[in-house]
Structures are given as C-alpha cells and as structure tokens.
Amino acid sequence: MFRFGLSGWKHHAAVIGGEKLSEYSVHFPIVESESSFYAVQPKRNYEKWVRETPPDFGFVIKAYQGMTGHLRGNNPFDNAAAMFDAFLGSLVPVIEADRLKMVLFQYPPWFECNRRNVDALRYTKEKMGELPVALEFRHQSWFLPGMRDKTLQFMEREGWIHSICDEPQAGSGSVPTVLQATHPDLTLVRFHGRNVSGWSGQGKEDESWRDVRYLYRYNTEELLEWKERLLELQKSTKEICVIFNNNSGKDAAPNAKELMRMLGVEYRGEAPGQINLFE
Hints:
InterPro entries: DUF72, UPF0759_sf. The chain has helices spanning 13-16, 21-24, 35-38, 43-51, 80-90, 92-96, 115-128, 148-158, 196-199, 209-212, 220-233, 252-263, 272-275, and strands spanning 2-7, 30-33, 58-62, 100-106, 133-136, 161-166, 186-191, 239-244. By secondary structure, it is of the alpha/beta class. Strands 1-2-3-4-5-6-7-8 form an eight-stranded parallel barrel.
C-alpha cells in the first residue's frame, strides 16, 4: 500500500486551493507535521487537526529539534527525560484517535556514525516505547561501504522504520538513496529534491539559502525511476508512506500527484464541510 503526502500543508495553498488542513486532506491521506520540530505542540493543536481530517487520515510527526540535536540556544526543558515526556504527552490526541503513522527522527549533518550517537539512538528508542518511529540520517558515514549493512541491521534489530531519502549528493552532509526496508510494516520515503548548490548553504553569508534549499521539480523520467523503485520496495514492507518535501517552489504537490498517477494510486478525501457535518 502506498500513502502519499506532503511536508506541511500551508506551503501548497496555491496548488490545492486553501491553507486549511481540511482542504489539504481532500487531496492526500497523510501529512508530515513540521511545526512539531520547532516546538512541542499543545494538545489542542493535535485535537484540532484530528477533528479537521477524515478518519483514515494519518500524521507523520516530526520529532522536536531538541530531541535530535538540532536545537541552538537555550533548551526550554530541564533535562532530556522531561523533554521526551512533554513531547509524548502532546501526541496523546493523535495516538488515541489511531492517527499516528510514525514519529520521524531526522538527525542533523553533524550526527556522525559513532558509539556516542548509537547510544543516543538507543536512548531515544527506549523513551519512545512501542510507538512507530522512523530514522533519517543526514551524515554520509552511516552508509559508507563498511557501515551500510551494520547500520541497516541495527535499525532492523532495534525496530526503527527506515526513512529513505532522495536528496542532493553534496558530500558528507547528505546520504545516498538506500532502498532497503528495515521494518516489515512501514517504510518512509522522503523527496527533498536535488538542488545540490542550495543544499548546504556553504559560502552563504545569510540565511537566504534556506528559502531555496528544497527548490527542485522532479521531471517525469526521475519519477518513473522512482515508480519502479517503490514497486520493488513494496515487496519487503506492507505500507510505504511517501512524503514530498521539495516545497520551496510549490513543486511538491504536483510531483506527488504525478507519481500517484504513475502508480495508479487514487485518493479523494472528504470535502471539508462533510467532515464535521454530524458533530
């Protein structure tokens, strides 16, 4: 089974016809929450999002940046345990509604393959308990020839869902596309685009590079290649969640729709007015 969605929903208002999640959910059955990365969300936000979407709509929740080593500046939590507890507590409305597809832990480019970071992954998995968790690396060392198989075996043994990436190949701060599932039930595939020059922002004196980092539109040939990859990947995992994150130029939604058509995936959610009609 394939489930397609986008990273966030407000980026794509011009394409899907509105900024509301309820309007987005007419077009796609899953979404990746970006706001959860920047701050632990209050429960009321998740309650609202669950209420605004159809019963079969799912959420890929991005882990809070303090839990993945991205946070710069003061940490609002006293310690790691308190941070994880707050994050887990915020997810209760999504979990109780059976809408959580997975929590995505995307680690930064400086999260290298070493003993300390392996221990950090074990701590994270322990804190997350039985919740489905996906793991995405941004440092090449995890998939170098001598470590690739060991990394995948570790993920499989520890119960991590593999977040497979299509991203620019820009040195150590990027990872290759590794087409291997590590969980029998779920696999995540994320499309970041292939904008090599905008990926790392090296040499840029300001933060403007972040605005074009995901500026890329996949062409038909590239998507056809991914059609074959996804069909092959489907043989080793029950469900594949496909997220398009190439949103700087509003290319994510059209690319997702095109790949859906190639795979014969059809989805039409409930119109916003119908979702709350009998509540």
